């Protein structure tokens, strides 16, 4: 072998070679030198010494713009004997190269221009013109190589073989010819480039008729930007004319791209980093676009949707820009910001903009070929108190400020924000094409270029290309995997309307007052079926109906015992007689504090039967919370039993202990007939008062009537639907209102309810067994419980179960699993104030997850903050009206007035949910989150203020802010940020945590406890002096919120060790279910992980695949599968070209 191949093999084995004087030095710390390589070294010793010592050879010092070791330079010299120049690639080039390598379609960052040429073309002269162009410009003889583990380098060769591919379609009819032309273009776009072989461009000439041609010029975007296109075309046409005429072409010496590299290296980046750090302060996620689906891969198919303004509309826009002393680009940026603000219901938005990146001080930069552009974030505040003019001025000023610091790389800019490295800095990019385009063919040319079209895709979800000549033309390129054509068409139409409206409104109008998108004159709500509910069809009446119709049918199964409808009715009557004897009746409130047994259901129904309303108390509540509810509700009695009665010393005079001998005797001796003095409740009477978390720091009681529940049960009977043959599982605590469906709907339709206690409901294995053994046909649970069941059940076939999921947002991944597992899957939505569920949507594999359509006698209104209907598809707050609305909050008239409003449109009562939704089809809405500080965790609605109120009462905590955070698995947990008092100095962190948790155990139920505590010494503040919650530091959530799961297999143990070294974490802190990125991983470390997987396990996993397999458990399964099948995939093209420290830059 030659010495270059030998040195390359040595490097691959981590063996270093050097020369000191006349001696050859070999460094082999890991004993990787084989006998064969040692023998080759001996044979080539003198040749190697001569090579390193020969001063006539090119050395790395000849290329000061490169970052090379001598060994790396040796590899270049071995492979590229005609090397002319080598220098580092710019960050933008590196990023484009990475994305194109990861794109399986080969289309990412391949730019394709096509132009129509009129005239007779000399094919050989046309090819010669392109060859002259390549000889003239170094950048067109450039390729890209990976040199070790430092940087991507761009290498200029002295020559690059090139030819123009020719197609003659002139014999085809015109329609077929253009069809073939489209096929040629498509095949060209899919071809990609070998980045190591210049020129990274192709040209095809297609003859369509005698004097009609099209040329197709494709190049890799890492070489050139759009500014270069007219320069290239102008020079090609000049060279062509010169070849045809046999005359020399007089063009000046071209400026070299290396001058720009030199300029970049001379920058002091500290000032620019500070600028971006201040600009992006508090930015922790890309501006949300509600219609975007999550990115699941690095590759995607793109399509485009276009529009143009008329010449008159375009003139109006240009005149407006002139009057406001800005550009049409600024108006377009305002329009896009306004649109994003409307979609996201946020006044602060950001998106990407492309800047030319050509520094004015660089001589000849205006005619220099190369890649200069950069994509940077533009932050726009549409403050409601600002005028349109003020926002335009701010955008114009921000553009100028950002431009000064726009040379900083995309990844360096992102590092100044809080957005993780594996997430995009922005999801949409606005490109205003304003490139020089005069005289591309010349007046004396025998060939005319009549049109020039460009096709290219970025790696952003949405890229908006705009240009302005006689009229404004806009193309919106979109990733089809992430956004539907229907949504894009809406975006395009709304953007068009905003641009038109801009020139028709006063610039002094306030953002809060102006409406630049006309709202369609349609109904301001969608309504469920309107149907009158018979007063005799309430819960008690329906139950008694089935007592008469099917007295011996099992109504309830509990604690291993079955109770028929007749037996349950008798127990209820006995309990009702006792309650009546104690003076309880219409208008009274009775608390229920019982374990999950038959007495629980009996008591709740007996309370209703005497005309009173029940107040459910969870046996898991702290005694302080129970005391507050009893005091606030003024409950006349508390029904309890056994040991639970001993906990209620605070209200001993009101306790009705079902285990007390006198009560047991009374129950046994009581008549099974209902006392005829008992008056059944009226439809409008209260059925129950259920307490939910309150923003004042105390829970609030929601008052629900018999009418409310009757409408709800009747609606649920219809959809999702329940029949007398069903067996429904009741697992939810009665303090959570979805228990109303579980306990009452079966009795309403003549079915059977199975009540299970916490020993079963919280043990997924036991719960699965119970479902199987009792042939349960309907289960209602929160997403967290369904996730738990998914992890335990071994069902291999679709189960005959109707699965109802609600209480919090249903994650798409869970929905997909459930659809494949259960016969029917329903997403349920509803606030307690509207009686359990108000929306139900059956999910299939293709649906977006919707909260469904309104149930019977219910309406949905989606309104803005002025209670006006929002434009379909945009975010708004959901208001509910109809038969399910609660009577208000118990003893809270001001709060009731605040949340139950009169609709300005119809005058009817509407409830303000605080939920943000958007319309995704004619009659369906998608839940997007909350507008206030209320969150849902594990299905429970929690006011963060209530948690903060409980924590601040602890003597160790001076100040506290509580946030809900995602644990990386689509579920939320609470994080408490605490400033400590001096008293805390007496304790270490572990003792502190134990004392705070002990305090919480007495103040709040377990589901309201923060899962993570972060100590804060200096609070980040907003300009108004409030705590900037967005800027609060990110805790190591995965370490705190996820239960530690130890490795089981050898592969998992090996991966834990590998992650420990990469992430610099103790193995004991790495759960096999934790996310690589939440543990501190980034794209650079991911690349190293892929490399080490190859070394340690002899498997090649795609970088894209590794990003998906972000936990050790998932990764271990994949490694084991690879090893079993010996199926190795190839990502060598990535690792050959990309150095580890560039991957982060590239992504």
TrEMBL record:
The lineage of its organism: Bacteria, Pseudomonadati, Pseudomonadota, Gammaproteobacteria, Alteromonadales. PANTHER family: FATTY ACID SYNTHASE, NONRIBOSOMAL PEPTIDE SYNTHETASE. Residues 1046-1123 form the Carrier domain. GO terms for cellular component: cytoplasm. Its cofactor is pantetheine 4'-phosphate. This is Amino acid adenylation domain-containing protein. Keywords: Phosphopantetheine, Phosphoprotein. InterPro entries: AA_adenyl_dom, ACP-like_sf, AMP-bd_C, AMP-bd_C_sf, AMP-binding_CS, AMP-dep_synth/lig_dom, CAT-like_dom_sf, Condensation_dom. GO terms for biological process: amino acid activation for nonribosomal peptide biosynthetic process; secondary metabolite biosynthetic process. One of its GO terms (molecular function) is phosphopantetheine binding. Gene3D superfamilies: 3.30.300.30, 3.40.50.980, ACP-like, Chloramphenicol acetyltransferase-like domain, Luciferase, Domain 3, Non-ribosomal peptide synthase, adenylation domain, Nonribosomal peptide synthetase, condensation domain.
């Amino acid at each position: 072998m030659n010495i270059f191949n030998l040195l390359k093999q040595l490097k691959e084995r981590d063996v270093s070679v050097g020369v000191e004087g006349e001696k050859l030095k070999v460094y082999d710390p890991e004993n990787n030198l084989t006998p064969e390589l040692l023998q080759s070294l001996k044979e080539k010793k003198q040749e190697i010494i001569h090579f390193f010592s020969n001063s006539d050879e090119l050395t790395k010092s000849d290329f000061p713009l490169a970052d090379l070791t001598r060994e790396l330079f040796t590899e270049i010299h071995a492979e590229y004997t005609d090397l002319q120049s080598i220098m580092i690639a710019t960050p933008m080039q590196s990023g484009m190269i990475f994305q194109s390598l990861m794109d399986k379609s080969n289309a990412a960052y391949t730019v394709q221009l096509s132009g129509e040429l009129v005239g007779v073309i000399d094919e050989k002269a046309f090819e010669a013109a392109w060859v002259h162009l390549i000889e003239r410009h170094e950048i067109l003889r450039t390729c890209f190589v990976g040199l070790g583990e430092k940087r991507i380098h761009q290498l200029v060769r002295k020559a690059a073989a090139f030819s123009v591919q020719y197609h003659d379609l002139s014999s085809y009819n015109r329609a077929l010819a253009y069809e073939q032309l489209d096929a040629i273009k498509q095949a060209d776009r899919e071809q990609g480039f070998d980045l190591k072989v210049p020129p990274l461009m192709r040209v095809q000439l297609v003859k369509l008729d005698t004097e009609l041609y099209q040329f197709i010029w494709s190049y890799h975007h890492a070489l050139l930007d759009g500014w270069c296109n007219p320069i290239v075309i102008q020079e090609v046409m000049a060279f062509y004319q010169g070849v045809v005429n046999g005359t020399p072409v007089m063009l000046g010496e071209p400026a070299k791209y290396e001058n720009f590299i030199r300029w970049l290296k001379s920058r002091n980046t500290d000032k620019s980093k500070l600028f971006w750090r201040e600009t992006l302060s508090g930015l922790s996620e890309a501006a949300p676009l509600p219609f975007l689906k999550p990115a699941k891969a690095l590759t995607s198919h793109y399509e485009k949707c276009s529009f143009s303004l008329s010449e008159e509309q375009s003139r109006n826009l240009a005149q407006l820009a002139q009057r406001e002393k800005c550009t049409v680009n600024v108006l377009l940026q305002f329009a896009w910001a306004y649109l994003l603000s409307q979609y996201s219901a946020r006044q602060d938005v950001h998106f990407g903009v492309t800047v030319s990146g050509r520094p004015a001080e660089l001589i000849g930069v205006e005619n220099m070929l190369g890649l200069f552009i950069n994509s940077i974030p533009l932050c726009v505040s549409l403050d409601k108190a600002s005028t349109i003019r003020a926002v335009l001025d701010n955008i114009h000023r921000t553009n100028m400020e950002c431009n000064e610091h726009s040379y900083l790389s995309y990844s360096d800019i992102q590092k100044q924000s809080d957005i993780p490295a594996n997430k995009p800095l922005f999801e949409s990019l606005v490109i205003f094409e304003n490139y020089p385009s005069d005289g591309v063919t010349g007046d004396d040319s025998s060939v005319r270029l009549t049109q020039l079209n460009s096709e290219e895709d970025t790696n952003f979800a949405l890229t908006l290309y705009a240009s302005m000549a006689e009229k404004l033309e806009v193309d919106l390129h979109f990733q089809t995997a992430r956004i539907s054509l229907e949504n894009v068409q809406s975006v395009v139409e709304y953007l068009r309307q905003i641009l038109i409206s801009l020139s028709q409104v006063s610039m002094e109008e306030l953002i809060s007052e102006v409406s630049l998108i006309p709202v369609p004159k349609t109904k301001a709500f969608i309504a469920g079926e309107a149907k009158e509910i018979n007063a005799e069809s309430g819960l008690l009446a329906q139950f008694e109906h089935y007592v008469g119709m099917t007295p011996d049918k099992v109504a309830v199964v509990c604690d291993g015992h079955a109770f028929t409808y007749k037996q349950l009715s008798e127990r209820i009557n006995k309990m009702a007689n006792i309650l009546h004897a104690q003076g309880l009746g219409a208008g009274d409130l009775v608390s229920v504090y019982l374990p999950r047994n038959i007495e629980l259901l009996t008591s709740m129904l007996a309370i209703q039967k005497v005309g009173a309303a029940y107040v459910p108390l969870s046996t898991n509540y702290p005694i302080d919370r129970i005391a507050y509810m009893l005091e606030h509700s003024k409950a006349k009695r508390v029904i309890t039993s056994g040991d639970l009665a001993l906990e209620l010393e605070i209200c001993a005079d009101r306790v009705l202990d079902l285990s007390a001998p006198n009560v047991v005797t009374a129950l046994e001796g009581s008549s099974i007939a209902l006392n005829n003095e008992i008056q059944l409740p009226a439809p409008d009477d209260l059925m129950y008062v259920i307490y939910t978390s309150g923003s004042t720091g105390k829970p609030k009681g929601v008052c629900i009537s018999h009418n409310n529940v009757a409408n709800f049960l009747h609606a649920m009977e219809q959809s999702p639907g329940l029949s007398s043959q069903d067996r429904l599982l009741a697992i939810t605590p009665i303090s959570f209102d979805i228990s109303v469906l579980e306990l009452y709907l079966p009795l309403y339709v003549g079915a059977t309810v199975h009540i299970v206690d916490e020993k079963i409901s919280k043990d997924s294995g036991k719960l699965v067994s119970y479902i199987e053994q009792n042939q349960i046909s309907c289960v209602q649970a929160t997403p967290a419980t369904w996730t738990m069941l998914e992890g335990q059940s071994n069902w291999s076939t679709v189960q005959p179960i109707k699965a109802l999921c609600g209480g919090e947002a249903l994650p798409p991944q869970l929905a997909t699993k459930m659809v494949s597992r259960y016969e029917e899957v329903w997403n349920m939505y509803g606030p307690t104030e509207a009686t359990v569920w108000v929306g139900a949507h059956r999910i299939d594999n293709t649906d977006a997850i919707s909260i469904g359509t309104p149930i019977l006698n219910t309406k949905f209104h989606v309104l803005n903050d002025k209670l006006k209907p929002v434009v379909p598809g945009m975010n708004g707050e959901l208001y509910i009206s109809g038969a399910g609305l609660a009577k208000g909050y118990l003893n809270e008239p001001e709060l009731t007035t605040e949340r139950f409003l009169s609709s300005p449109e119809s005058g009817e009562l509407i409830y303000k949910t605080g939920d943000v939704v958007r319309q995704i089809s004619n009659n369906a809405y998608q839940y997007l989150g909350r507008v206030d500080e209320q969150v849902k965790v594990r299905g429970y609605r929690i006011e963060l203020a209530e948690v903060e109120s409980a924590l601040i009462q602890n003597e160790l905590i001076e100040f506290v802010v509580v946030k809900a955070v995602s644990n990386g698995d689509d579920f939320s947990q609470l994080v408490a940020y605490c400033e400590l008092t001096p008293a805390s100095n007496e304790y270490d962190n572990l003792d502190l945590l134990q004392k705070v948790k002990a305090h919480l155990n007495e103040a709040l139920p377990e589901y309201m406890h923060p899962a993570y505590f972060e100590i804060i010494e200096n609070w980040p503040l907003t300009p108004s002096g409030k705590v900037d919650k967005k800027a609060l530091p990110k805790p190591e959530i995965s370490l705190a919120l996820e239960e530690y799961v130890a490795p089981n297999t050898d592969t998992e143990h090996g991966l834990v060790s590998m992650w420990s070294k990469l992430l610099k974490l103790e193995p004991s802190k790495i759960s096999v279910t934790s996310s690589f990125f939440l543990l501190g991983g980034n794209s650079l470390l991911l690349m190293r992980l892929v490399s080490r997987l190859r070394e340690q396990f002899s498997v090649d996993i795609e970088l894209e695949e590794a990003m998906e397999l972000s936990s050790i458990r998932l990764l271990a399964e994949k490694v084991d599968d690879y090893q079993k099948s010996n199926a190795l995939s190839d990502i060598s093209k990535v690792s050959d070209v990309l150095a580890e420290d560039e991957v982060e830059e590239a992504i």
